[in-house]
Amino acid sequence: MKSTSASHSGKAHGKIILIGEHAVVYGEPAIAIPFKAASVEVIIKKTDRPVTITSNYYAGALSKAPKELNYLSVLLQKISSDFKKTIDHIDINITSHIPPERGMGSSAAVSMAFVQALLSYFDISLEKEQLLYYVDLSEKIIHGNPSGIDARITSSEEPLFYKKGYVFESLPLNISGYLVVADTGETGQTSRAVADVAKALKNNYEIAEPLIRHIGELTLKAKSAIFNNDLYTLGRTLSKAHESLKQLTVSNNSLDQLVKTALEAGALGAKLTGGGRGGCMIALATSRKKAESIEHKLLKQGAAKTWIHRLKGEDINE
Ligand code: PMV
């Protein structure tokens, strides 16, 4: 967070959920990876106008912003009232390189960067857990019942093994291999998918509950495959998680098609990542060469954008 007296900045990055999405809402573990290829910066400056916002999505008075940006007003009011600060004239500038609504944690990253910039503007310093309290609050407005994983990974330098209500564990991915990330180009529908899983648990408990528990077991299996540098078991585990997510109805045709294409192109495993029903998928490859060949096939199949992420080390698109 680098700020001058005139300009206050907050930064965060996107994320990829390796495994455990949806089940993590119900107390099962998940593994998430910081995705620094996709980052966001929020800069707050004092102006002589009422609060304004400038972003790719909207530019103008915050009071007239579309409802999708409500969470920023709520955060602004909550932080001002908690710390007895008056909201005076500020300009909020958001530069985001995280595609929105793609399961990459865009909203949590914007909230995290915004909260950091605002606290710097008010000259308040908080512990990480207190910062996360505000990001969780905005995620609740956006997603209804978030697990908290997005909030935590957007400011983490390390991959995380996360269980709701527990302290999150750093999980260095000491495993060779590459992840190919592909965007379907369709906006995901996290809150609807999360709500539909809740509905399935209410109406079809005997079917939905074992699927949730199974995803939890697969996440533990993935964790031990990572410890044992067993890329093949990790791959198979990711594909099994996709099948369970599909049965929970959070996949869609585009995601299933890209998963199939990646497997046919030699991926060790593939699955959707994040909320699903659009957004992104991931595929596991043994080498960069293999990852590039999978990437090529995914683009040919219609993926809107792809990234190659090396698991061991932090380089992305080297
Ligand atoms: O689609 P995203 O990036 O918001 O990821 C959602 C992950 C879920 O497990 C589906 C929901 C959650 O809050 O953990």
Automatic annotation (TrEMBL):
<keyword id="KW-0444">Lipid biosynthesis</keyword>
<feature type="domain" description="GHMP kinase C-terminal">
    <location>
        <begin position="223"/>
        <end position="302"/>
    </location>
</feature>
<keyword id="KW-0067">ATP-binding</keyword>
<protein>
    <submittedName>
        <fullName>Mevalonate kinase</fullName>
    </submittedName>
</protein>
<dbReference type="InterPro" id="IPR006205">
    <property type="entry name" value="Mev_gal_kin"/>
</dbReference>
<keyword id="KW-0418">Kinase</keyword>
<keyword id="KW-0963">Cytoplasm</keyword>
<dbReference type="GO" id="GO:0004496">
    <property type="term" value="F:mevalonate kinase activity"/>
</dbReference>
<dbReference type="Pfam" id="PF00288">
    <property type="entry name" value="GHMP_kinases_N"/>
</dbReference>
<dbReference type="GO" id="GO:0005524">
    <property type="term" value="F:ATP binding"/>
</dbReference>
<dbReference type="GO" id="GO:0005829">
    <property type="term" value="C:cytosol"/>
</dbReference>
<feature type="domain" description="GHMP kinase N-terminal">
    <location>
        <begin position="75"/>
        <end position="150"/>
    </location>
</feature>
<dbReference type="InterPro" id="IPR006204">
    <property type="entry name" value="GHMP_kinase_N_dom"/>
</dbReference>
<keyword id="KW-0460">Magnesium</keyword>
<dbReference type="Pfam" id="PF08544">
    <property type="entry name" value="GHMP_kinases_C"/>
</dbReference>
<keyword id="KW-0547">Nucleotide-binding</keyword>
<dbReference type="InterPro" id="IPR036554">
    <property type="entry name" value="GHMP_kinase_C_sf"/>
</dbReference>
<dbReference type="InterPro" id="IPR014721">
    <property type="entry name" value="Ribsml_uS5_D2-typ_fold_subgr"/>
</dbReference>
<dbReference type="InterPro" id="IPR020568">
    <property type="entry name" value="Ribosomal_Su5_D2-typ_SF"/>
</dbReference>
<keyword id="KW-0443">Lipid metabolism</keyword>
<comment type="pathway">
    <text>Isoprenoid biosynthesis; isopentenyl diphosphate biosynthesis via mevalonate pathway; isopentenyl diphosphate from (R)-mevalonate: step 1/3.</text>
</comment>
<dbReference type="InterPro" id="IPR013750">
    <property type="entry name" value="GHMP_kinase_C_dom"/>
</dbReference>
<dbReference type="GO" id="GO:0019287">
    <property type="term" value="P:isopentenyl diphosphate biosynthetic process, mevalonate pathway"/>
</dbReference>
<keyword id="KW-0808">Transferase</keyword>
